[in-house]
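2.7 Reproducibility. Because tokenized structures are sensitive to small changes in the input, we list the exact sequence used for Copper chaperone CopZ, including any N-terminal residues retained from the expression construct. No trimming or masking was applied before prediction.
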Amino acid sequence: MEKVIKVEGMTCNHCKMAVEGALKKLAGVSNAVVSLENKNVTVSFDEGKVTFEQMKEAIEDQGYDVVA
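Resulting structure tokens (single pass, no recycling of outputs):
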């Protein structure tokens, strides 16, 4: 499954790497690609192994805000 998550506060390559890295560490996430221009991250994942709440928490733990 693929989901686009709006994220506020990402401004640079470090932000991109932090969010992508945090998401890719989650069991069930196969890929995460940040678009700084669109202020979002596209996550490919197995919905049976990881929840939106877990992905949201991983992003927020890096210091960014998930916009519902």
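The two ends are 18 Å apart (CA to CA).
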